[in-house]
Amino acid sequence: MREWGINSLEEFSRRVGIPRGTIYYLVRGRQTKAGTWVKPNIDTLVALSKALDVPLHELVYRLEPSAPGYEYRFEHHIPILGYVGGGPAQLEEIGDRTVPVRVKGSASHLVAFKVRGNSMCAGRRPVCDGDIIIVNTQDKGHPGAIVVARLDEDSYVVKKMGPDGTLYSTNPEEPNGPPVIPVDQVAEIVGRVVEVRSRLD
User: Fold this and answer.
1) How many Å apart are CA 129 and CA 177, to the nearest integer?
2) Inter-residue contact 196 to 125 (CB < 8 Å)
3) Are 189 and 181 in contact (CB under 8 A)?
4) DSSP secondary-structure letter at 196?
5) Strand 110-116 to strand 75-85: parallel, antiparallel, or no bridges (unpaired)?
6) Range list of β-strands (E), 43-185
7) pLDDT tens digit string along 71-130?
8) Could you tell me if 99 and 168 are in contact, meaning their C-beta atoms sit under 8 angstroms apart?
9) Element (H, E) at 9
10) Model's pTM, two decimal places?
11) Tens digits of per-residue pLDDT, 171-181?
12) Which of 70, 65, 148 is nearest to 114 (CA)?
């Protein structure tokens, strides 16, 4: 109501199409004779969700903060830092783009990259040209993990980590880019790939 500059429940009721009495109880609360707080029914929640353009589950979690999934209710937008080479290494920045994620707590440890090249487009977890990859910067990977690495010349690649830290391509049919990157060419492991998404609309 404050955001809309509305000062009365009557006006808000007319604006959203929900009966005034219902709005009154939503704002003021209502108790039974036994002292139990009365909660709005699902029809009221659906109407309020449509009126305020708020996802219905967000309203449910406000009523039941301990409900399963509550800790994942917030959608974070993490930055897409740039292009990462699924074939040759990439240097180009992508600009001010973000991608939404739903995680428990903070998403400050997550970043995203957009993939160019198909040298990782094979195996159990293919990473293909145009995909968006979500990277956990707190997890530096392990042998067999798919990671994003920064190379000595400050370009970025997405590769599979070998037992000795060497980085490998997984697509034997992709000729572009080095199939193996020695450890001494890797300046930093940015993090492990925790999610792969298809092309961003």
Assistant:
1) 13
2) yes
3) no
4) E
5) parallel
6) 75-85, 98-102, 110-116, 132-136, 146-151, 156-161, 167-168, 180-181
7) 555 677 888 888 888 666 666 666 658 888 877 677 889 999 999 888 898 877 789 988
8) no
9) helix 9-16
10) 0.60
11) 877 666 567 89
12) 148
Tokens 């001010």 correspond to what residue? 96
Structure tokens, 136: 């956990």
Query: Torsions phi, psi of 200, nearest 5?
Result: -75, 130
For tokens 């000729």, the residue is 175
**Region of residue 35 (left: phi > 0; alpha: psi -120 to 50; beta: else):** left
Tokens in use for 69? Answer: 């999934």
| 21's tokens | 């009495």
Characterize the bridge pairing of strands 132-136 and 186-197: antiparallel
Residue pair 107/101 in contact (Cβ under 8 Å)? The answer is yes
What is the residue type of 26? L
Element (H, E) at 195: strand 186-197
| pLDDT tens for each residue of 147-191 | 999 998 888 999 999 999 999 998 877 666 567 899 999 999 999
